[in-house]
Amino acid sequence: MSDALDRIVAGNRVYAQRTSEHDPNTFVEMGRGQAPEILWIGCADSRVPETTICHCKPGDIFVHRNIANCVHADDLNVAAVVEYAVAHLKVKKVVICGHTKCGGANASLADADLGVTLNTWLHPVRELRRKHKAELEQLADDDARATRVAELNVQQGIEVVKQHPTVRQAVRDRGLTVHGLIYDIPAGQLRLLDDTRATGGSGLWTPANH
Amino acid sequence: MRLSVRDPHARSAGSRAAVRLFIGRGTPVTLRASQPSFLSPHPPTALLHIVPRTSTLLSLPAFSATLTSRRLAAQSQHRPFSSSTHRPWIWENIAEMAAEPTPEPNSQALRKYLQQSHDKIFESNKKWAEEQKVKNPEFFEKLSKGQEPDYLWIGCSDSRIPAEAITGLGPGEMFIHRNIANLVCNTDLNVMSVVNYAVRHLHVKHIVVCGHYGCGGVKAAMTPQDLGLLNPWLRNIRDVYRLHEQELDAIEGDKKYDRLVELNVLEQCRNVVKTAAVQGSYKKNGFPIVHGWVFGFQDGRLKDLEINFEKMLEDVQKIYNLTE
Ligand SMILES: [Zn+2]
Ligand SMILES: [Zn+2]
């Protein structure tokens, strides 16, 4: 067990050394402050590390991650993150990213008892599943259903974020935009969710020729 | 939405690859890619793969807008919680890119441009995916089967501290929660569900609470100002101050904040230890172990606050024992 810990301590040494070798000013610059352009609200899932999968570097993305990338209207944690990022850091984009093979979305396909904490947290996602029952039943298997629930949950999150007073103001005053993404784990690829109200589409746009 | 990709290999060493994203009516986002070896010992999992829908895209008025570095710079003038707004290389990069001619909206040249930029990112991504498969044939298959992370990381949302990058871990290795000032509040269903899931379902072996010196959240919390929605969240930090008032009052200047950052991490570790999930699992399995760390920007290193987990658990259980 201590091996696992040694590994990340050693990993950090490599990171610190390589970073200062690459550019000795990196940490001086970093110490001065942050100016990220993106707020990322993603899943806590270990397979979706935002900075790595977006080929970015430290300082680029302000991050909140929770179980199934939920944005509940009554959640102070995420509300504080949004407020800080939008009002004080003045990010330009808010991105909500769900993913395929999501444990939280999968658990929301049924009503298994996960303990009162997780049951309560996932309740709104399970409600989404109930609301879209007919559509979900059409899909081939639970994998496809979980992906669709993840998409619906991202769309729901976007609706909630857009109602945040500071976000509304920033959208009006300085063109802040809110976007939905789905990260496809088996493919290692990000997809942009369509704005359903604008297009009447299914929500997920996949390039036709691939 | 417009997407353009710069080939890192086509440019001089030390320059950065950049992806520009033009989404909707807003200003574009610039994603800069650094050399993978610089970011972490692991290669990136994926290239950014966002593809515009041509029909939507061509109708957007913002599409033909030319970006200038001035416009972007002007928008980031006021950032009260960031001690610096000056990152010269970013503006340099944007200025350079803004000089590129943008094809006319609805033109043939534009369609060609879109197709090319679209194809290019697909090709790079395909190439990369193939490389992963050569190195490790089961890479994606294994990832799609599920996750078995050893660690849960509870850190600050601060953009400068992406947990996996600063610890050299790859996808699938660390379960992550990040919020303002890495707080673990008893009544916060968000963080509590993360701890629950990580301990009871993923059986993580270590829980790391990681703060960082120069934390804007901690500074903001101690600012005598009404911060609206942030008040109730940041109140927790003032409570940490009150718990350690004597010690902190004896310290002058920036050192005081540094110590508050450390004490905040220690208190949040204690909050993790107070949960039934952690107490129950430790009694039954002998894990997880809780660690308190602080990241320092001066050298990029993690400092271990060396908490004695067993002692902390014992102390906590005098009052907060949730095991049977
Ligand atoms: Zn997930
Ligand atoms: Zn912070």
Automatic annotation (TrEMBL), chain A:
Keywords: Lyase, Metal-binding, Zinc. SUPFAM superfamilies: beta-carbonic anhydrase, cab. Binds 1 zinc ion per subunit. PANTHER family: CARBONIC ANHYDRASE. Reversible hydration of carbon dioxide. Belongs to the beta-class carbonic anhydrase family. One of its GO terms (molecular function) is zinc ion binding. InterPro entries: Carbonic_anhydrase (IPR001765), Carbonic_anhydrase_CS (IPR015892), Carbonic_anhydrase_sf (IPR036874). It comes from Amniculicola lignicola CBS 123094. It is an enzyme of class 4 (lyase). Gene3D superfamilies: Carbonic anhydrase. Its EC number is 4.2.1.1. Its cofactor is Zn(2+). The lineage of its organism: Eukaryota, Fungi, Dikarya, Ascomycota, Pezizomycotina. Zn(2+) binds at C43, D45, H99, C102. It holds the Pfam family Pro_CA. One of its GO terms (cellular component) is cytoplasm. It catalyses: hydrogencarbonate + H(+) = CO2 + H2O. This is Carbonic anhydrase. GO terms for biological process: carbon utilization; cellular response to carbon dioxide; cellular response to oxidative stress. SMART domains: Pro_CA.
Automatic annotation (TrEMBL), chain B:
It comes from the Eukaryota. It catalyses: hydrogencarbonate + H(+) = CO2 + H2O. It is an enzyme of class 4 (lyase). GO terms for biological process: carbon utilization; cellular response to carbon dioxide; cellular response to oxidative stress. CDD domains: beta_CA_cladeA (cd00883). One of its GO terms (molecular function) is zinc ion binding. Its cofactor is Zn(2+). GO terms for cellular component: cytoplasm. Binds 1 zinc ion per subunit. Its EC number is 4.2.1.1. Pfam families: Pro_CA. Keywords: Lyase, Metal-binding, Zinc. InterPro entries: Carbonic_anhydrase, Carbonic_anhydrase_CS, Carbonic_anhydrase_sf. The keyword NAD does not apply. The keyword NADP does not apply. Zn(2+) binds at C156, D158, H212, C215. PANTHER family: CARBONIC ANHYDRASE. Reversible hydration of carbon dioxide. Belongs to the beta-class carbonic anhydrase family. This is Carbonic anhydrase. It comes from Amniculicola lignicola CBS 123094.
